[in-house]
Amino acid sequence: MKKFIIILLTLFLVGCDNNDIVTDISESDDCIFSITYPITNYKKLNKQIKKYIRRTKDDFKKNYCSNKLDRQELNIDFKKNIINNYVNIKLIVSIDNRKVIKTFVYKDNKKISIYDILTENDLQILSSYINTDLSNLNFEFDEDNLYIYTDETIIIPLEEFDLNFEINKDYNINGTYVYNEVNKTIDKSKKTIALTFDDGPSIYTEKIIDLLNEYNASATFFVLGNKVKDYRDTLIYMLESGNEIGNHTYNHKLLTNQSDDEILYQINETQKIINETLDYTPVLFRPSYGSVNKKIRNSTNLDIILWNIDSLDWKYKNKTKIINHILPKIDNNKIILMHDTHKYTYDTLKELLPKLKDYQIVTVSELKKLNEG
Ligand code: ZN
Asked: C-alpha angle with apex 205: 246 to 352, nearest 5 degrees?
């Protein structure tokens, strides 16, 4: 019996899906962080990623976060590729205009080296491309190519190799989703506020949507493009519950520091990915950190939306403090900024919503429409 329970427990733990994306965004007078990284089903891999991020953040703080005239920005984004149970994680670290790539390849909770995937013959082929120590190679692969990151990026088609395993090209294709606008009645005579959530989605987003549903409220979620595919189901639930999706850049770079091309990429890539994934086109844009100038305004036809009340949830990290900060400022037509990336924001909302019974809570587009007549 004991054995049976242990087997059951093991099955449960192994089958447990821990996949999530962590968002760590904060700013101070002298520096800015925007760090996004995945939590996978592999504990060792998660530990390695966290260790690398911690070290990068500490180095950045030491070297960049003091006595500078301009605020310095550390941006960490990621790409995840799962090929036949090989989890390929690529972290893209940007400081100013410098980029560093760090990769992790794991399978069955074990670190995979290039020797694990290439045959003797393949290694010979590889040596015609690079001439460095292969044991600590910074590499990853997808269905088609092997990518090696040294001072430059080397891309080699997998066709050139025999490989120690067969690439399985049947990847999961999600069913199509057709977006239908949810009909809602809005009372013109009632005091109205718009709730907005930035930087998501996250594992807390669905719980936040449940709460909104309970109070017949809706909100605008300004999402990051790099999370859209992983949270497709959450976003569908968001739309079906009558909420709105806005564009909040691809990976939260401070746009006022970026080139024209990068600004366009941050906005347009996010529009594209939302459109392709959800058959939905956002009409609102909220620049990361609310930081905007004429160049950014001229880069898009989307409506740029900031806020009237900043909950400062990321700073207070405590529901009572956040509520005490927001409540006195609540008034008709205000737009409130929160973040659906933290448990304390959910806890705040749970206590805040019953206190807002005099208001109808709508999306930003609904608030706009209401004020237009
Ligand atoms: Zn943000």
From this structure: 95
